[in-house]
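Tokens as discussed.
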């Protein structure tokens, strides 16, 4: 009897917001790696959503910690907002990580938006227009392509898809149902990230459909007990 071949997809997790120390992160990395997941990713925020009084791990420092603690996990910001640091500072930091950790760093990039404008403390307000953000993102793309091909763009706007086609990049679709991807352009690689609950009803079926649609990564946030999740996803992560 011919052995069933399960299509390969990488499954990652978004680091929970309650992890705010490197001791906590080290324990989480050990668990995630032992259970067979492929990556750990960080929101690029100064504080958890709507909770400016609470701390959050810096996405790039957290990424460096994960890549240093593990020899197998991929990591990166989900996604790095160009408005947080500007193009030059973003490139310097990402290029340094690429030089140390190579292809295990995923440079997932985005333009940022008005929802996080209070965090954009390092970029002058007159640089935060939509056109300026897109120009800065394109500048960062051009610089990064000289040092890595592992670049994703976050978002599904026409401007983002145009950049993906122009520079032959991967698009990361955030928290959209499977049916959305059935009508989404597929002339570039696609990864999926979002809330666990978005896929949790018929999780295996949803993942199988995403695989058939060509999705290469699924990154889950707000996940339940990891041991239970790993058991549920064992055919995809082992």
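Sequence:
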């Amino acid at each position: 009897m011919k052995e069933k071949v399960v299509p390969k997809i990488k499954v990652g997790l978004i680091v929970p917001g309650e992890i705010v120390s490197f001791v906590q992160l080290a324990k989480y990395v050990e668990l995630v790696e032992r259970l067979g997941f492929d990556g750990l990713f960080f929101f690029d925020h100064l504080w958890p959503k709507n909770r400016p009084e609470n701390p959050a791990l810096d996405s790039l420092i957290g990424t460096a910690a994960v890549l240093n603690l593990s020899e197998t996990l991929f990591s990166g910001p989900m996604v790095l907002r160009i408005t947080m640091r500007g193009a030059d500072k973003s490139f310097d930091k990402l290029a340094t990580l690429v030089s140390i950790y190579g292809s295990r760093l995923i440079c997932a990039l985005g333009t940022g938006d008005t929802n996080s404008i209070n965090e954009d403390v390092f970029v002058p307000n007159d640089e935060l227009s939509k056109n300026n953000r897109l120009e800065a993102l394109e500048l960062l793309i051009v610089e990064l392509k000289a040092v890595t091909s592992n670049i994703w763009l976050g978002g599904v706007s026409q401007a983002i898809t145009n950049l993906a086609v122009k520079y032959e990049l991967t698009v990361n679709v955030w928290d959209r149902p499977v049916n959305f991807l059935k009508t989404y352009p597929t002339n570039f690689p696609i990864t999926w990230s979002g809330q666990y609950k978005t896929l949790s009803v018929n999780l295996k079926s949803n993942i199988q459909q995403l695989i058939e649609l060509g999705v290469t990564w699924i990154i889950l946030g707000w996940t339940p007990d990891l041991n239970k999740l790993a058991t549920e996803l064992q055919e995809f992560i082992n």
